[in-house]
Amino acid sequence: MSDDHVYLTLAEGHEDDTRWAYGTGFEDPLHGVDTAVPEGVDAGELAALCVTLADDALVAAQRLAEWTTRAPELEEEVALANIGLDLLGQARLLYSRAGQADGTGRDEDAYAYFRDAGDFRNVRLAELPNGDFAFSVVRLLVFASWRLAHFERLTAHRDPVLAAIAAKGVKELAYHRQYAAEWAVRLGDGTEESHRRTRKAQEQVAPYLGELFTAYDVRDEVVAVLRQVTEAAGLPMPVYRPLPGSGRAGEHTEHLAPLLAELQGVARAHPEATW
């Protein structure tokens, strides 16, 4: 199966989405949206959900930013950076909503820069080091497929703010998933070396998949996407052997703390600094 065929089939249901998500529109996704927490929605649960989704996006964006000046080609460097910016935009909106919902009024900087690693609730897949390009592609394919499935469901959330954030994110994530799918096929169905590296990346990512399916009923949908891509790439589906623990419970790998130290260093050294 060609990567063009994968693009056409995965794009079904997203026909109006551009293949370049970042910068396609600058309308405020929350314009005109009532920011009051609706009656019947638990504000604490809403805030916690927003924080977990934001932490996933922030940490993933930071990893993608590390490809700047290091990607195999300039075009891929720009693409990965812009995918990271999409995720960073999602994190900012979600952190702001969390601060509104929990009544603390905390802004996005408070969540991003002034919490320690144990306070973060991102899935561990997002915090793993980039490795080679094949690993980052496979990791992005899994992450984007899973997050897209989540966000499609969240467009119907009872909180109109979260629903609006999800609706904007769906368009971005559809492109993220497609970008990664096309590269996974090229690498898996490419040279012997690229095939070997992509298969190794699958094996490295597989233990972290179990953590992704603990909330929402998205497993079958995500696995179907991964199976479609791996078949097109001439790759086997990896065997899932979930690792114990969960980033959602604050149980992280040794890689998160140094990543956050790099992200948070300037803000913590100069907490009152302004431009």
TrEMBL record:
Task: Extract one GO BP annotation from the record.
Answer: phenylacetate catabolic process
Q: Which PANTHER family match?
A: 1,2-PHENYLACETYL-COA EPOXIDASE, SUBUNIT C, PHENYLACETIC ACID DEGRADATION PROTEIN PAA
Q: Which InterPro entries match?
A: Aromatic_CoA_ox/epox, Ferritin-like, Ferritin-like_SF, PaaA_PaaC, PaaC
What is the recorded name of this protein? Phenylacetate-CoA oxygenase
Which lineage is the organism of this entry classified under, starting from the top rank? Bacteria, Bacillati, Actinomycetota, Actinomycetes, Kitasatosporales
Q: Which organism is it from?
A: Streptomyces variegatus
**One Pfam short name:** PaaA_PaaC
Give GO cellular component annotations, separated by semicolons: cytosol
Top-level taxon of origin: Bacteria
